[in-house]
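Lecture 7 notes: from sequence to structure.

We start with a single chain of 334 residues. Read the sequence below before looking at the structure.
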Amino acid sequence: MLERLPTFTARQFRKLTWVALFFLGSVVLTGAAVRLTGSGLGCPDWPQCHGQAVPPLGFNTFVEYGNRIFSAGIGFISLFVWFAAWRRRPYRRDLFLVSGLLPLGCLAQGILGGFTVKHHLAPGFVMAHFSLSMLILIAAVWLVWRARYDHDDERPRSEDRWTVWLVRLCAVLGGAVIFAGSLATAAGPHPGDNDGELVHRLDFKGAETLVWLVHRHGVLATTLGLAVIAAWFMARRRTTNAQLVEALTLCGVLMAAQGLVGSVQYALKLPADFVWVHVTLATITWVALLWAVGSAGRVGVPLRRPGDDEHGNGRTPLAGAEAIAKPVPPAALR
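Now the structure, written as tokens:
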């Protein structure tokens, strides 16, 4: 029975991981479109819409229900990637476990989306909905990165641990910037429904809440930009990792674009189209930061063996006991 199921080569599986990453990033943008078009309650119930499997026509209903169908489709894609990881040959347990996070995350998103609608787009639920998408992207990027190598032990180790830790700090700061941005959105003029009075907004500082949050968001974003620049210089001076330099260069360009878009949208009183572009760039920047973390490599210096490249990569290092036990050719004793 199992022999009849299809199998996947390492190359085929790598392509599937890229497909999953693309769609998991895309659903963030469609979700943002739901909010910014005021369609969050276009379907006031869940999982049906207006009590029907096929809802009545209407722009807000179409946008909200369309996003639900798109999300469900991505859930099936994630499930298929998990199946492909199981049927990948040669089988790798790490890929199977990491890919399992994708359908589990999509399932959690569906449940959380239902609670978000039930609680009339309460800011906490909307923020959790967005934050969970960012966490799922961590798993998706992690899976793509691991699938690039035929064996887990082939993933590169770092040349400089301080550069690695700074790049990882950039990713942590990136998460903080995104969270602060979601707080600002929760206090902004886009509640997600056409009738703004039905949706609570964050107002813990009264009328100054939005301005206060935007300023904190800006400070964190500036800190992240400076950290990315510092990591870029360290990567150039302390390593020969061209891939990391390229990843950090992309992060820097995206951060500059984000700063420009953020400044313009704030000056224009947060028009919906600019906010959507801001969310799009934030999602791409988040993926770029995660990619930089992978490019920085693992902390630790590998054991060098004949056939390894200049950084000790290319072959799995021997374990200590195995290395000691390996016979020494007689010629080497002369």
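The radius of gyration is 23 Å. Keep this in mind for problem set 3.
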